[in-house]
Design goal:
Layout lengths: L8 H29 L21 H40 L38 E6 L4 H5 L6 E5 L2 E2 L7 H8 L6 E7 L2 E7 L12 E5 L2
Antiparallel strand pairs: 1-2, 1-6, 2-3, 2-4, 4-5
Helix pairs in contact: 1-2
Family: Belongs to the proteasome subunit p27 family.
InterPro entries: Nas2_N, PDZ, PDZ_sf, PSMD9
Protein name: 26S proteasome non-ATPase regulatory subunit 9
């Protein structure tokens, strides 16, 4: 794969934002582990039937973890918006510098998706054109504050890859459901098409305030 030559202030800003995002995701995982250790979620009661603090959990740690998760989720959501804006600026600069409307990376990747990122990129990828026939599923509604929302998924995103599933091996939505069910607390790579742009996102399936592990609806592309 031929990666994008993203040099300059815009690229540096995006890489710093991605670094900050990774740190936030790491801290969210740490606090989520505290909740999992105590077998509670974000909304489980911390008092018993008589109104006394539960003696089967560390109430102080759980409260602190919940508070930090909420704060970090808000920070993460804001960072994802900045990253998306920054990537658009980098893409615009690249198109202006190469003097042509050709693919940003100058060559197609080995899987046919000219996603314009080097193999070392760990978060949202720079934009590039992808053929519609590579899309196999579409994101419906996304709940605010959900794991999907935190990852940066948006309504109408077209899914090119979800974990190990892509358009070549996709058969039905059971494959997606199985990946989510077996990846609680683990990073799942998702590649989505949004307009003419392609983004590599990372979602962390986990219990949250509402039912489900993602907090979004994904359906087969019609």
């Amino acid at each position: 794969m031929v990666g994008i030559n993203m040099n300059g202030p815009a690229r540096d800003r995006v890489m710093k934002l991605i670094e900050d995002k990774d740190k936030i995701e790491s801290e969210i995982r740490e606090h989520t582990a505290v909740l999992e250790t105590n077998n509670v979620g974000m909304d489980d009661p911390l008092v018993d039937s008589e109104g006394f603090p539960r003696n089967d959990i560390d109430v102080y740690k759980v409260r602190h973890a919940r508070h930090r998760i909420i704060c970090l989720q808000n920070d993460h959501k804001s960072l994802m918006k900045l990253i998306e804006k920054g990537l658009a600026e980098v893409h615009k600069d690249l198109l202006g510098s190469n003097g042509e409307g050709r693919a940003v990376n100058g060559a197609s990747s080995s899987n046919g998706h000219g996603n314009g990122t080097s193999s070392g990129d760990t978060a949202a990828a720079a934009a590039a054109a992808v053929e519609d026939d590579k899309v196999f599923a579409v994101v419906g509604f996304v709940h605010d504050g959900s794991p999907a929302d935190i990852a940066g998924l948006q309504e109408h995103d077209e899914i090119l890859q979800f974990g190990s599933v892509n358009h070549q091996n996709f058969q039905d939505m059971t494959q997606i459901n199985n990946i989510v069910a077996h990846s609680v607390g683990q990073r799942v790579n998702i590649k989505v098409k949004r307009g003419n742009n392609v983004y590599n996102l990372i979602v962390l399936p986990r219990p949250w305030q509402q039912p489900g592990l993602l907090g979004c609806h994904i359906q087969r592309k019609s």
